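REQUEST FORM: STRUCTURE PREDICTION
Request ID: SP-0412
Submitted by: Lab K.M.
Chain count: 1
Length (residues): 191
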Amino acid sequence: MDPALTSGVTAEPVLLDADELTSDPELESRFAESAHRILADLVRAGAALGWVEPPSRNEVADLVGPVLRAARAGDAALRAAYVDRRLVGLGYWLRYARPTHRPHADLEKIAVAAVAQGRGVGRALTAALTADARMAGIEVLTLDARGDNAHALRLYRSLGFTEYGRLPAFVAVGEHRYDKVFCMLDLRRES
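STATUS: Completed
RESULT:
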């Protein structure tokens, strides 16, 4: 485990976009594996990231490749947070594919390694992705979260996202049921 993350040192994360990540051969070659480790650990601990069971390495690799290609085409943004060249968080948005929805994007994932939670990494990732969306001409950025994820919902609200819908008891995890909460950030109102 990285001493900077466990010894009480509060190293600032370095946020890389897709171009910066792929321009560093060492980081690019380790990115899918590092992302897998974070996502699998979080899902194993009960995080609401779209999987009931931890994703396989191949599932994460199959997710990362298209996101990086979409980012190069201007249809996505990916941010990776590093502390001492160790991936501690990631997030991305994807532009809606339907022609009538092209000015809109969905913030698909924000994931922060357990050892880096509570250090502002999720806030920094979300803020950077929001800025990327604004620069890409996105008008409305949407996301959904599991209703019991109070920390994430509080973070999104603090960054200006508002709830626009809720599906009660929609998400089934074993015997438990959770609301699916839909949020949006209208970038047309910001100057």
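NOTES: Residues 73 and 177 are 38 Å apart (CA to CA).
Reviewed by: T.R.
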